[in-house]
Amino acid sequence: MKTFLKSVSYLGLALSIVPSLLVFAGRLSMETNLNLMAVGMVLWFATAVFWIKRDQGL
Amino acid sequence: MSQPTPAPTLVERLDALYEYDREPVAPNKLHGGKTFIAMFAGEHVAGTEFVLGPLLVIHGVSATDALGGLLLGNVLAVLSWALMCAPIAVRERLTVYWQIRKIAGPYLTVFYSAAFAVTLCLLAGAMVNVSTTAIAHPFGIESPNYAAGEYFPSAPWIAVAVVIGSVIAMLAVLGFDRIAHFSKICAPWMPLIFLAGAFGALPILGVSDLASFWEAAQTKIWTGVPATGESKYGFWSCVGLAWLCNVSQHMGMGDVTIFRFAKKWQYGFASAFGMFIGHYFAWIASGILCAAFIVTQKAAGVDQPNVNPGNIAWLGAGWAGLVCVVLAGWTTANPTLYRAGLAFQTATPNWSRWRVTLIAGAVMIFTACIPAVNFFLDRIVAYYGLFFMPLGAFIFIDYWVFPRIGLQKYFAEKRRLTASWPAAVGWFGSFGIGFVLFAKDNYAAFGGVNAWLPKWLADYRADFFMQVLPAWILAVVLYTVCSFVQQKFTAKSAA
Counting C-beta atoms within 10 Å of the first and last residue's C-beta, which end of chain A has fewer, N or C? Predict the structure, then answer.
């Protein structure tokens, strides 16, 4: 389960950055990029909260 | 009949508040390097990065100034953490509160805590302001454009700021453990949004490959020409701002509180992860977003574009950008307000934590509604750093130099002094002199000072952000000379 959650989280991070590189390269529209970034954000926050541990505190 | 217990003094209350960390950290509580890398990488990508990057663009730095100056300034900041702050932290393993108390005495420490609390409220307010620009955006509420003369926000904007500030204040009352966890979750995502926003905005500036970046950087982003009515910043301003930005934590020794948990002093270099992600790439990215926003607005016929975090993040990253601005402001405002409440609590002994934190929250919300705070954020950050830095300079000199020149370290503690006058002279003297040397050429009220100064000093033109070095030297000289007088005089009277 944790592996699955992590995979989805990393997909979310990838969707946050890769589309903008494609915009830069002229291969994707800005509008699609912004939508994909929003999807990436949802994927990241919906899954990372379950596997990123709390700090022990300094 | 029993005697009534006398009310504790202010100093006793302050000591009690920090009692739990009076003892040096035990060896089994020490942390490895990864903890510090994660902490710095997470804490130094704040909402205010969306303000400081654009300010460099507006103040007309050139591309070389921005990229080279910020590089050098951040290297100096990392070296200050690694070579000045961390080594003392791992040797003494005490918080900055107890370090200052040892050299300056309890009264000056109380003053330091109170002044620090007020400053933290200002900074938390700046972060609420940043978050408000993002939340106001989708509601169609325009944020005030200070550059265009809008000195007060609209009523709906104030309402949004009050709601955001109230939520932050209530969460701070509840403690910030959960917020700290949430900040940790945000940490890997937020820098990517800055980066993605910049890459997405580059085509607006006509950049289609890396080769064309440098030309656009020089002619469209960091043009070297300040916006109308703004002062000009140069290479040394960039160096100074990057160095000064967290000076109260490194040269000011605030982070001995953190590094006292480090196994090795070399973990001070972990600060590079915070500086180069937050204060180098994020400032460059937000500068690019700012330039792209100005280009699109001018193309649309807007004479004075309203550059604010919400607007520039929306342009480059859409909804993800707005959420990033809100979270970047919120996750840093919350612990800042919590710490401010903790510091304020010392002056209000019978008040509960929640009441003190809510009052600190009210100050924060009031500050958030002053657009000038973010417009002059670079200067506020610099004043804050310059004001608190001298105490760190004293800790450094007291620890490393005093024993070598025949002076006692921790003299105030050994003699049970309530306030160390050498520390007071060094602190207020260095800040005051540094301020006047800058103000004489920049504030009309101080224009007459030059007539009283020797020519070489009247001719001296201080770069505001580069005052960190002369201020440190001045603080150290004043403190050392005064300590010499104090200790020799005390020794003579004892004999």
Answer: N
Q: Of B101, B86, B88, B76, nearest to B385 (Cα)? A: B76
Structural domains counted in chain A: 1
A-chain CB neighbours of B199 within 8 Å are: 17, 20-21, 23-24
Judged by a CB distance cut-off of 8 A, whether residue A1 touches chain B is no
| pLDDT tens digits, B65-121 | 999 999 999 999 999 999 999 999 999 998 888 899 999 998 998 888 888 888 988
Quote the CA–CA distance of B127 and B327 in Å, as a whole number.
Answer: 10
What distances in angstroms separate CA B220 from CA A32, B49, B69, B123, B217, one per listed residue? 26, 20, 18, 30, 6
Tokens in use for B154? 């609209």
Q: Classify residue B371: in a domain, yes or no.
A: yes
Q: Which letter does DSSP use for residue A28 in this model?
A: S
ipTM over 0.85: yes
In a domain, B5, yes or no: no
Residue A26 forms contact with B (CB below 8 Å): yes
Please give the full DSSP string across B194-243, using - where no structure is assigned: HHHHHHHHGGGGT--SHHHHHHHIIIIISBS-PPTTPPPP-HHHHHHHHH
Mark which residues 19-48 of B lie under 8 Å from A by CB: 31, 35, 39
> How big is chain A, counted in residues?
58
| Domain housing A34 | 2-49
Q: Show Cβ contacts of residue A45 under 8 Å, excluding neighbours closer than 6 positions.
A: A12, B185, B189
Contact B185 A16 (CB under 8 A): no
Measured on CA atoms in the order B455, B383, B187, B289, is the torsion positive or negative? negative
- Report residue B153 CA to chain centroid gap: 25
As a whole number of angstroms, the longest Cα–Cα distance in chain B is: 87
Question: How many folded domains does chain B comprise?
Answer: 1
Minimal C-alpha gap between B173 and chain A (Å)? 18
pLDDT in tens, B195-211: 999 999 999 999 988 88
Q: Is residue A40 included in any domain, yes or no?
A: yes
Inter-chain Cβ pairs, chain A and chain B, closer than 8 A: 85
**Within a domain: B481:** no
- Is residue B417 in some structural domain? no
